[in-house]
Amino acid sequence: MNLIADIPVLTKKDIRKLSLDDLKAWLVEQGEKAFRAKQVYEWIWKHSAQSFEEMNNVSLALREKLDQHFAINAVQVATKQISNDGTIKSAFKLYDNNIVEGVLIPHEERKTACVSSQVGCSLTCKFCATGYMDRVRNLDAAEIYDQVVRINQQSLEQYGQPLSNIVYMGMGEPMLNYANVMKSIERITAHDGLGMAARRITVSTAGIAKMIKKMADDGVKANLALSLHAANDEKRNQIMPINETNSLEALTDALKHFHQVTGRKVTYEYIVFQNFNDTLEDAEELYRFSKVIPCKINLIEYNPIENADYKNTDEERWQNFIYYLADRGVQVNVRRSRGKDIDAACGQLAVKEKQPA
C-alpha cells in the first residue's frame, strides 16, 4: 500500500477540538437547543463515539448536520501483538496514516496503559528505539485519549479488568507536546470523559526543566517521572543529548520547585547498563541525587534495540546496585522487562515501516 497516496484530504474539523462552550455556541447558531451540546460532548468523549451515527439520543437531522460540518478522527488499531507474558502492543493508525505504538502491561494487581504523545521523537536518546526515528508531528489530545480507550477495551476483553494506571512513556517526549498532553489528561480524568483519578496517571520526561516547573505551576495533578539513567552530567550527556541544555543542576532546581509547589514525590527511572552506569560509584551518585527531594527510584532492565550496543548489566552488579540504595533507605522498585519478545518493552517502541511524508 502506498501510504502517501492514501493520506485523506481533510476538509472537516475534528469535533473534539471544540470545547463544550464552543460546541454549545455552534449549535445555538444552527438553531439547536443549547442542551444538545452536552449530549454530543458526552458521546464524543465519555462514550468514545467513532461516528455521529452512533448518537442514538440525538435527532437524525442534527446527526446529519454534525456529519456535514465535522469529523471524528478516531484512532484505529492497525495491528496487535500479544507477548508470551500477556503484554499487548498495538500499532495505532492515525487519520493521516501515521502510526504510533501503545502497550497494555498486565500485572495481577494492576493493568497499565503506556501511551505515545508524538509520532517519532526529536530527543535522540541513544538507548531508545524511538530516538532513532524522526519526529513527524505531535499527537492531538483526542489521539492520545483514543489510545487509552482502545487499550482499556483490550484490557477488558483480555483480562476482564479496566485500566488502573496510565503512563505517558511511549513514543515521543510529552513535555514537548505539553498542551495536548495536558488536555488529554483533563479529558481522561473528567467526569464526562473516562473519569480516571489523576493519581493513577504518570507523565514521564527526559528532562525539560522549564516544563517541569510549568506542570507544577499549572496545578496538574498527575504524577511526574524523570528518565534519569545517569546521575552525573558527563555520562548523561553521552546517552541523552537533552542534558546538554537541561543539566542536572537545572533539573535539580526544577524538581525542587515541583516538590515545593505540589508536595508530591517524583519517580526517577534508571536503566542499569553494563559497564556504563552500574558501579557502586554510580549508585552513590544516584543516592546523592535522590536526596534532592522525596522520590522513589525505578531500576529498569535494559531492552536491546537494533541501533545501539548497550547491554543489560549482569545479575551480581544488578543486585549490588539495588542493595546499595536500599541499605541507605532509598525506595527502590525493580522493573523487569515485559513484552520484550514483541519489542514492546521499555525503550523498544519504534514503527518499522516508513511514515508517510
TrEMBL record:
Residue positions binding [4Fe-4S] cluster: C121, C125, C128
InterPro entries attached to this UniProt entry: Aldolase_TIM, Elp3/MiaA/NifB-like_rSAM, Methyltransferase_A, RlmN_N, RNA_MTrfase_RlmN, rRNA_lsu_MTrfase_RlmN/Cfr, rSAM, rSAM_sf
GO cellular component, one term: cytoplasm
Keywords: 4Fe-4S, Cytoplasm, Disulfide bond, Iron, Iron-sulfur, Metal-binding, Methyltransferase, rRNA processing, S-adenosyl-L-methionine, Transferase, tRNA processing
Catalytic residue list: E101, C346
UniProt keyword annotation of Disulfide bond present: yes
Residues holding S-adenosyl-L-methionine: G172, E173, S204, S227, L228, H229, N303
Annotated compartments: Cytoplasm
One Gene Ontology MF term: rRNA binding
Entry EC number(s): 2.1.1.192
Record-level GO BP terms: rRNA base methylation; tRNA methylation
Protein name, as recorded: Probable dual-specificity RNA methyltransferase RlmN
Biological source species: Pontibacter ramchanderi
